[in-house]
Amino acid sequence: MRFLARRLLHAGFLLAAVSVLCFLFTDLAPGSFFDGMKLNPQISPETVAALKAQYGVGKPLPLRYVLWVKSVFTGEWGFSFAYDSPVRELLLPRARNTLLLTGTATALAWLIAVPLGVWMAYRPGRWDDRLGMGATSLLLSVPELALVLALLCFAVRTHAFPVGGMTSANDEQLGLLARCQDLLTHMAIPAITLVLANLPLLVRHVRSSMIEVLDAPFIHAARGHGMAPARVLIGYALPAAANPLISLFGFSLGGLLGGSLLVEAVTGWPGLGPLLLEATMSRDLYIVVGAVMVSTFFMVGGNLIADALLIAFDPRVRTD
Amino acid sequence: MRRLAWVVLWVVIAGLQSLASSAPQPLRPGEEVQTSDNPIGRYGGNLVVAQRSEPKTLNPVTAADAPSREVIGRLMADLIHINRASQQTEPALAKSWTVSHDGRVFTLKLRRGLRFSDGQPFNADDVVFSFRVYLDDKIHSPQRDLLIVGGKPIEVAKVDAYTVRFTLAQPYAAAERIFDSLAMMPRHLLEKPYQSGSFAQTWPVGVVPAEVAGLGPFRLKSYVAGQRIVLERNPYYWRADRSKNRLPYLDELTFIFVGNEDAQALRFQAGDTDIISRVSAENYALLMKDAAARGYELFDLGPALEYNFLLFNLNDLKPPTADKLKPQQVWFADARFRQAVSAAVDREAIVRLVYAGRGAPLWGNVSPSNRLWVDQSLPHPPRSLDRARDLLRSAGFSWRDGGQLVDAQGRPVEFSIITSSSNTQRSKMATIAQDDLSQLGMNVHVVPLEFRAVLDRVFETYDYEVAVMGLGGGDADPNPEMNVWLSSGSTHLWHLGEVKPATDWEAQLDQRMQRQMVELQYRRRKNLYAQAQEIIAQELPFVFLGTPDILVGAKKSVANFKPAVLEPSVLWNIDQLYFLPGAAGAMDGQR
Amino acid sequence: MPGPWKIRTALGVLLLLHLAILFAGFVAPYAPASQNRGLPFVPPMRLHFRDAQGHLRLRPSVCQPELNAGTFYEYSELCTTEYPVQFFVSGPEYKIAAVLSSHTHLFGVEIPAHIFLLGSDNYGRDLFSRILYGGQISLAAGLLATAISLSLGTLLGAVSGFYGKWIDESFMRFAELFVVLPWLYFLLAVRAFLPLNINPMRAFFLVVAVIGTIGWARPARLVRGIVLSAKTRKYVLASRGFGASDGYILRRHVLPHTYGVLLTQAALLVPQYVIAEVTLSFFGLGLSEPLPSWGNLLAALQQYNVLVSYWWMFAPALALVVFSFGYLLVADELQQRLQSASL
Asked: Which domains can be identified in chain A, with CATH numbers?
C-alpha cells in the first residue's frame, strides 16, 4: 500500500514536470497561431497584434503557465485559439473515439501475438516459424502510412469497407444493431492497420522471451517428467517469460492515446489524432498541451499498472 | 370549450411543426424575393461534400479559417454579392443602390418582407448592428480592415427601416465588392451577447441550432464533433426560381471532415461525396480513369487566380543577420540578377511536372484567366540560359573554370531557397528551380521548413535568402491585393516595414496602385493597373513561376452544376443545385 | 535450408547489398540528382534478351520509352532502335569514400538513351541510382540512431535496475517523461534554429541523433526489467560473497542476460529509424532535396496517386525489407548462438 501511495505521488510530480516542459517546448518552436493571418493582404498587422494580445499569446511564459494551471482546476484545461472554446470540450469526445479504436486494436494485437509468439517459439527454425519471422519482418518494414493507404485503396476497389470516418452520415436513423455494425465496418480499416503495425514487435518479443525460457533447465525437467507440452508452455514457460512482456504491456496501455495519430489522420477517424496534428501545425498551443497531458496520464497509468503486475507476477522482483 | 382547446392545440402544433420543418414556405405577398434565372429544378436530396479540416466556429465575425467560412457562407447572406461566374457584383439583400457623384456615399435599399431562418423579420436594424460588430475595435474581426478606406472606418447610418447609407472617407474603386461575404446577422439573437461582451464566444461550431439564424439558403441542423456538420433548407430563403419555387432545391447539405486532399479524392471516388473541388492534378488524372464507371464528371476550369513565386529578401536587416546575408542581398538587389533567375527557370517543366500539365506558367502577378485585368501585351519570354548568362555578365558576374558562378568580388554565388514542407507543389517548384539555377553555376540548397517556421522567417526575423510562396486567388479585382504592392503594405513581402519606397520603381508602382485604387472608371483603371503590371514584370521583386488549374468534379446526378474560378468554386450556387430524377445522391443506397 | 546454409546465404546477400551500397557510385549508372524532365514516372525498363530476329543474345538491350500523346506519364516502348547494355562504361564522375574519384560505372547505355532499371521518379531521376545512394545515408542514419538509443538505454537501464531504490525511481520517472513529451516541437525548433546554409546532410544527421537520443526509454525499460530479476539470481549473490565488485557483476553476470533483448531491439530499431524518416519528411524534418534517402524516397508514396499508379516507387520499401530481413535473420542466429553459449 505504501508502495502504491509513493507511486501515486511520483505520478503527480511527473505530471507537473511534463506540464512545465511541455510549455517550454511549445514555446520553442517558431511562429504563433495568428501568424497565418499575416499572409492575408486583407488583414492588417494591427489586427493580428491585437488578437495576439487578446488571447494572451505575448504574455511571459511563467504567467501563462500559472493561468493555465488555474484553468485546469476550473475544468477548462486551457483555451483553444482556433475553436474559441475550452480545450476540455474538444478533447473528451475525441479521446473517447480514439480509445475505442486503439483499445480494440491493442486487445486484438495482444490476443493474436501471444499465442502466435508461443507457437513460433515452440518450434524455432521450422517452416512455420520462419514464415512467421518473414511475415513480421515484412510488416515491420512497411511504413504505417503506406499500409493504411494500401488498405484504403483495397477498400475503394472492393467496396468491402467504408472509406474513412467513424459513422455513416445517416446513422441517426439506424437502429442499435445496425449502428454497431456500421461502427465496426468503419473501424475495420484503421483497426486492422494498427494491429498489423503493432503485431510484429509483440510477436517477436513474445517469441524471443519464450525461446529463452524454453531452454531453462526446469522446463526440460518438466518435459522430462512427461508433462503435456501445452501445460508446460502455458502454465510454466509463459509466466516465466512474462517479465519483459509486462513492461511491454505497460507501454501498450500507455500508448493507447498516442499511438494512432497518423492512422486516424489518414482514415479520418475522429479521434485525438487529427485534432492534435492540426493544432501542432497551427500552433494552437493549449490543445497540444492538453492532449499531451491526457496522453501522459495514460502513460503514467499504464506504467503503474505494469509495475503492479510485475510485482504481482514475478516474485523475484518482490525481494528487492 | 374543450373542443376549442383541442382546436387551439392542433393549430399550435401545426404551427410549430411548420416552423420546425424545413419545407419551403410559400411565398408571401409583400415579400420582395429575388428571382434567380436558373433552369427549374426539383426539390429533394442531401448533397454531401468533404472538407479537409473541420470548421472551428460558426461566428461570421471571428471566423478566419477556410472551412468555417465555407459553412458560414451557406448559412448567411450579404447585401451585395459577387456573382462567382460573371465575377461582377449583383444585388443580394440590397435590391438596389445609388452612388453619389464623388463615389463616396452608397445608399442601399433593402428587400422588404424578408425573414431570417427562424422566422424573425429582417430590416435595417440588423444591417446597422452587423456593421457595428464588424467595426468594433475590441473584437478585432479579420474583416474589419476591409471596411477601412482611406484610413477611416466606413460610416453606417440607418435612413429608414429598409434603407441604409454607407459613407467612405475617400472614393474607392469597386467599393461595392467590399460588401461581398459580409454576413448580415440577426440582431434579435446576437445583440445581448454583444452587449455583454461575450460575442467572440457565441456560435461555436457545437452551438444549439435554435440559437443560430441567418439569411442564407441553409440553416444549421446538427453537428457531430470531428465527423460532420449537417445543414437543412432555410424555409424562408429570399430567392426563388422563375416558377416561383422558393430555393434551395436541396433538403439537406452535409459537410464531412476528411483530413487531407488524398482522402477527399478517395471519398469522391468511392461515391461518398457528390461534389469535389480543388482537386490536385495527380488525383484528377486518377479520378478521370474511373469517371465513366462511377458516374461522375470532372471539369478543368482553367488557370486559377493565385500566383506562386520566388521571393528575394530585400529587407533592411540588422546585424548579425545583415552581415550574414550581405553578399546575397547585394546580388538580389540588382534587377538583372532577378531577371537572370527568371530567364533560367523552366516554367514549362513546372507546369508539366508539378501540375501534370494542368496549370499555366506566369510571368506576372495576374493570371491569364483574369480576363478583365490581365495585361495581354506583357511579354512571355521563353526560357533562355543564354539570355540569363548575358544578364549576369552585364551585372558583373563571371564563371570559374569548374562552371561555378562568381560575383565581381570573386565570391561564389550560393544561397538557399526555403519552402513550406507541407506544400508539395511549392517544394517541387523549388527543386526544379534549384536544378535550373545550377545550370547557371549557382549553388542552391532547398531547405524545406515547416510552414510556420517559414512565416516566422519571412515576417518576423527576415532570416532567409529566397523563399517559394504563393499569394492571390481571393478576388479578381486588384484592390484586395494592394497590401502586397504598396510599399507601406503589410504583405509587401520583399521589403517589409518600408516607411517610404526604397527604390525608384517602387515609388512608381506605389503611384500607379494608389491611383487605380480610387479611380472609378474601369478603362482608366485598367490602364493604370496595366502600367503597374509592366513595372512588376520588369523589376521582378517576385520571380513568378506558375499557377494551377482549378479542377472540380460532380456526380452526373447533380444538375445545375456551374463551377467557377473564384472560391467557393462549387458551392457558390448551392441554392440552385438539385438532383436529377432517379438519382438519390451519396446518402442512399451506395453501399 | 536448415543449419549453417541459411545464415551463410543471409550473410552473403547482406554483404553483397552492403557492397553495392558502399560502391553506389560504381554500381549506379547516374548521379542521384540528375533530372530528365522529359521522362517523369517512367516504368522500369524491360531488358530484352532477344534481338529483332528473335535470336537469344547474351547482352541485353533496352528500348526507349515514348510518351503517349495526350496523356501525362503514360509510356509505350519504342523499339525501333535498341540500345545494348554496355558494361564498365564511362559516365558521370563520382567519389568512393569521398577520397577516390572515378568515371567508370558498372553498366550503362549510349547517350541519348537512358536505362531506368527501376523506373524514374517525378523529375525523371533514375530510381535505381537513388536507391543505392539513398541506402548510404539511410543505413548510416539508422545505425547512428540505434547505436545512440541502445547505448544510452543499456547504460541507464542497467544502472537503474542494478542499484535500485531511488536511482531506479528517478531514472524510470525520467524515462516516462522522455517518452511522453511532444518531441515534435523540439525537433521543429532544432531544425528551425539551424542556420540556413548548413550542409543539409549535417542538419539531417543532427535531427537523427536527437531522435536516437530520445528513443532510449524503451530499451532502458526492457534492460531494467531483466537486470532487476537477474541480479537476484543465486550466482550473483555468490559472486558478491566472493567479493566481486559491482562492475564485475554487471559485466559478467547480469548484462549477458540482456544481449538477446538488445539484439532483437537493434535488429528492429535500425529499420524502424529508417522508416521514421518518412514521418520526419512529413513534418519537414527529412533530408532535403535533391539528396535521396530511403525515407524521403518513400515519402513520395504518401500521395495516393503515386501509390496507386506508379508501383515501382515502392522499390525502396523492397530494399528496406530485404535489409531488415537479412538483419533479423542474422540477429536471430546470433541470439541462438548466445543462448547455447551461456548455458
From this structure: 88-145+199-319 (1.10.3720.10)
